[in-house]
């Protein structure tokens, strides 16, 4: 009986691998690659690799009046957003503040990102009537990142409820 209890205690004390956090890191890297490529194209004044069809025209989308917020290109904002998200994810097990609030910060950042991506995607669909393959890829990546961050928040609240139940 004590062997079973000891092995259960040992199992409980081992740090669990957080698959959702790893998925978030992977998605953040994908977002950095996508937005970094668009930023690189912007800085070097080159066109992104994109099919030029009646549906897709990356050049039109990336150089429209909707591609900047004031003087700042949207691609720069996207890259900055993904960098902030990955920084929080990588540091949330190391810094006390981020250990406590990291999941919520990532959730808030991805919520803002998915709402902004939704706005930009609606501009592509209804105003420009043209799509940017890279922009859609970033919007999908941000949406997946949001869903994973929501799952992380949900799981942590469920674990907190279970801990409260056990304490009683």
Q: In which range does the helix fraction lie?
A: over 70%
H/E topology pattern: HHHEEHHH
- Mean pLDDT comes to 89
Computed over alpha carbons, the radius of gyration is 20 Å
Shape: elongated
Structural class: mainly alpha
- Beta-strand portion reads under 5%
The residue ranges in which pLDDT falls below 50 over 5 or more consecutive positions are: 5-14
Write out the strand line-up for the largest beta sheet, numbering strands in chain order. 1-2
Largest sheet composition: 2 strands, antiparallel
Tally the beta strands: 2
Helix/strand layout:
Blueprint: H1 2-13, H2 19-44, H3 58-62, E1 68-69, E2 72-73, H4 74-91, H5 96-128, H6 133-167
Antiparallel strand pairs: 1-2
Helix pairs in contact: 2-4, 2-6, 4-5, 5-6
């Amino acid at each position: 009986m004590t062997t079973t209890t000891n092995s259960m205690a040992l199992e409980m004390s081992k740090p669990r691998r957080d698959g959702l956090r790893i998925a978030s890191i992977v998605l953040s890297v994908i977002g950095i690659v996508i937005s970094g490529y668009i930023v690189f194209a912007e800085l070097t004044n080159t066109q992104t690799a994109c099919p030029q069809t009646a549906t897709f025209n990356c050049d039109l989308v990336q150089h429209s009046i909707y591609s900047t917020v004031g003087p700042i290109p949207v691609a720069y904002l996207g890259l900055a957003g993904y960098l902030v998200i990955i920084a929080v994810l990588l540091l949330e097990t190391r810094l006390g503040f981020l250990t406590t609030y990291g999941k919520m910060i990532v959730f808030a950042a991805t919520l803002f990102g998915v709402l902004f991506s939704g706005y930009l995607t609606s501009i592509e669909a209804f105003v420009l009537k043209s799509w940017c393959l890279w922009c859609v890829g970033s919007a999908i990546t941000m949406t997946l990142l949001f869903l994973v961050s929501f799952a992380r928040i949900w799981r942590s609240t469920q674990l907190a409820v279970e801990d409260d139940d056990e304490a009683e």
